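User: Last request for today: this protein with protoporphyrin IX containing FE, please.
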Amino acid sequence: MIRSSIAKKAVVAITGLLLFGFVIGHMVGNLQIFLGRETINNYAEFLHSMPELLWVARIGLLVAVTLHITFTIWVWRENRSSRPQRYVMERTTRASSASRWMLLSGSLVLFFIVYHLLHFTVQWTNPDYKQYYEHHGQPVTLVSFEPNQIGPGQEAADLNAAVEAQTPGDDIASEAARAIQEIPADSVAESERREYRRDVYRMVILGFRDPLIALTYIVAQVLLGWHLSHGASAMFQTLGLTIPKYRRGIFLVGPIAATIIVLGNVSIPAFILLDYWTNFGYFTI
Ligand code: HEM
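Assistant: Here's the final one, the structure of the complex with protoporphyrin IX containing FE:
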């Protein structure tokens, strides 16, 4: 069954739809950065407060991406070897060049995702992000601790590993460091621990104040938009959702949704960088 070409295309279409849904949800979550530190940090804390669910979602995404790529390559190779004569008609040329662009844009989006995970999630490219915490709404920079050891749900003893404030004379930071050191290892109340949480707000803003990083994200969103727009049309065709009467409307869904995603995602690095360059002061870290 899965050997049939249509079944393979259906796997690409359904996994593509799932990933499309993730991108929309992620964009809506990220746009909360415009509502301020409290809102976006609440959201990030909420997502990380259910580690089991988070891992189910992560594994689901990984499976969807892997199937999407594997089956795309499978279908593409099959089409290539079964095509009797290449590029005899203009229509064929157009179709194959579109699918080549899908492969290219998809590969570039994959590169972006790997970079994005190393940037914001693993923080491998910018390890200093690991020190950004928030204490009662105030930014705190902590040093000399094992990464990711502060926050709800971790071992009480780990809190004692978090010491020293970075900036000498910075009252908020030294207060946070002292408070953490003074908490008895076995009696840390959840409420006390929750006073220190990751400052995703500062991480994203400092990230996009770097023009090269902002530009990388902007270009990646345009490529992603192109991929989603064309992918959606291909998906409707594969799933047979092309009722003649609504054909035009159906084929507009992809480009419209993709445009919204591009505008929403691009607005984040673009506004953060503009705000910084113009000293407008909307995003304060
Ligand atoms: C300008 C656009 C984007 C911004 C500002 C952004 C921001 C972020 C941030 C801040 C995180 C880390 C959240 C945390 O640690 O709590 C994250 C994680 C992630 N992002 Fe994005 N993102 C953007 C676009 C995208 C796109 C286009 C994709 C996929 C196509 C994507 C996929 C992911 C994934 C898979 C994670 C990891 C989630 C996890 O496992 O924790 N992001 N993003």
